[in-house]
Amino acid sequence: xxxxxxxxxxxxxxxxxxxxxxxxxxxxxxxxxxxxxxxxxxxxxxxxxxxxxxxxxxxxxxxxxxxxxxxxxxxxxxxxxxxxxxxxxxxxxxxxxxxxxxxxxxxxxxxxxxxxxxxxxxxxxxxxxxxxxxxxxxxxxxxxxxxxxxxxxxxxxxxxxxxxxxxxxxxxxxxxxxxxxxxxxxxxxxxxxxxxxxxxxx
Amino acid sequence: xxxxxxxxxxxxxxxxxxxxxxxxxxxxxxxxxxxxxxxxxxxxxxxxxxxxxxxxxxxxxxxxxxxxxxxxxxxxxxxxxxxxxxxxxxxxxxxxxxxxxxxxxxxxxxxxxxxxxxxxxxxxxxxxxxxxxxxxxxxxxxxxxxxxxxxxxxxxxxxxxxxxxxxxxxxxxxxxxxxxxxxxxxxxxxxxxxxxxxxxxx
Lengths: 202, 202
Fold this sequence. Notes:
2 copies of one chain form a homodimer.
Chain A: E1 6-10, H1 17-27, E2 30-32, E3 36-37, E4 52-53, H2 56-64, E5 68-74, E6 77-82, H3 83-91, E7 95-100, H4 102-111, E8 116-121, H5 125-135, H6 140-153, E9 162-165, H7 169-185, H8 188-200
Parallel strand pairs in A: 1-7, 1-8, 2-7, 3-4, 8-9
Antiparallel strand pairs in A: 3-6, 5-6
Helix pairs in contact in A: 1-7, 5-6
């Protein structure tokens, strides 16, 4: 059986990668990768749907055992992408969608270079500002910080296989669907060649 | 402006690559590459639409001047893919569709490695036999020869970027459209990397 594709949807904060993933999952038959975290569940968050919730000790043990594609600490809490559920789905021929920030994506690429790495580009920094503000709940200082971080993150684009501009959601989702379809049509030996080139680059 | 893509649709004789190209041109905005030949026009064939018709002397001069991506002799007549119209369209940002046999495709890849090389796979050799017979006008010996040649040509698959199975025409055309769309979304630096890998392989 043909193995599934690990499709990594990534990009700066506020580019709408989460929305793309949600829409994508309505249109393609794929499994969403669920993160593991040490932070407490927020109201409405469900175990195994939004996150796998765990404690610090178990998280660290999982990390030491090489159980994550990547993990990071954000505001004092640990977040990681568990390998096992993804590898299991891929082996069964299912595509796995992974939404992740740029730093995480680079770690995933080290661990799984044969993944398909898609960078979601905001139409412009002005639009990005509008989106982050619309999402609300953040001070002007924090918004400015996010924006300058996003600007810096645009340089990551070159590290990805594909770049999709999220100006119109439906179009961006169709772009990602075309990428997934095309990747399945790649000749296996040349896919490996690409990966080899990708790995040398690190 | 972003350069257009040279999309090479290739594969063994009888796989339906011509039909795919014709359908494709109804669905995508692209220029069809027209071959140059020394053979006489058949009834209904139009200059610049089916072929550029020329004489042997001019053909050879064009070949010596490096004016072809590839050229070959078939049954005593010369056929070639002229570079200039394709390069001109590509520079204007237009995609160019080139239908060509497997040997020709390999020459085009030498001359233009940044092309997108798609191998059209017949659903099966039985189906291929049916198609070649249906096309008619050939002796059983010639059909057998074509089939054994096609079987040998299947090994070329590994030299291509993508493989599209032509079981259902509409599906195959949509596959090629997805490939073209995805190729336009590729991050430029990684496209070059792939090409570099591709070139080393020759």
